[in-house]
Design goal:
- The protein has strands spanning 36-40, 49-57, 61-62, 69-70, 80-83, 104-105, 110-122, 135-136, 157-159, 169-174.
- It has 185 residues and is mostly beta strands.
- The chain is 0% helix and 26% strand.
- A hairpin with an 8-residue loop joins strand 1 and strand 2.
């Protein structure tokens, strides 16, 4: 069970730490980057909680229902986000779906990804055949891969309901942690 301090967000979901008003460098609020916070699910109506991970944008990010690509410098993994185009099957987390699609997260600002719990993510654009409960992985465009996670791919979570539609927002129950929990072979 999370402690009360874990429930107090440093800024509201759907906002960035600078609220677009300031120019930040990588040292501002560095101590918060990578921290996790538990909040009630106010997006999907599940009655459950969502764990958010606070990250820093290495460059400006256009909001989409996609998975993040971690930075590559030492200490970046799980803390600094390069963009929304991770390596297919890599350990990743989805951008918090409280953000408005099309908005911009400014470079060096702080924002949230979903560490654990429900989150809308977009299916890939070519072919989708997912059953309810299938383990999901990412494709190279940062979307939910159109087939269940395969051997060697990191399982990000499970899809809530079946989908055969490309480019569709689907509910994914994001699994906790950043380890490479591989799909069965």
């Amino acid at each position: 069970m999370p402690s009360p301090a874990d429930k107090t967000l440093p800024f509201a979901r759907g906002d960035t730490a600078d609220l677009g008003e300031l120019s930040w460098d990588t040292t501002v609020f560095k101590h918060l980057v990578g921290r996790k916070y538990w909040v009630d699910d106010s997006v999907h109506g599940t009655g459950s909680q969502v764990c958010l991970r606070l990250c820093r944008a290495e460059s400006a990010i256009t909001v989409a229902r996609k998975f993040v690509d971690w930075g590559t410098d030492a200490g970046d993994f799980g803390r600094y986000v390069a963009d929304l185009t991770p390596t297919a099957g890599a350990p990743t987390k989805p951008l918090d779906d409280k953000y408005t699609v099309g908005d911009t997260i400014p470079a060096n600002s702080l924002f949230y990804v979903v560490e654990e719990g429900p989150c809308y993510c977009t299916t890939e654009g070519s072919s989708v055949n997912l059953s309810a409960g299938d383990p999901v992985a990412t494709d190279t465009s940062g979307c939910v891969n159109g087939t269940a996670a395969a051997a060697g791919e990191t399982v990000i979570g499970q899809i809530d309901a079946a989908s055969t539609t490309t480019g569709e927002n689907v509910l994914v129950w994001v699994a906790p942690g950043l380890q490479a929990a591989e799909a069965a072979g």
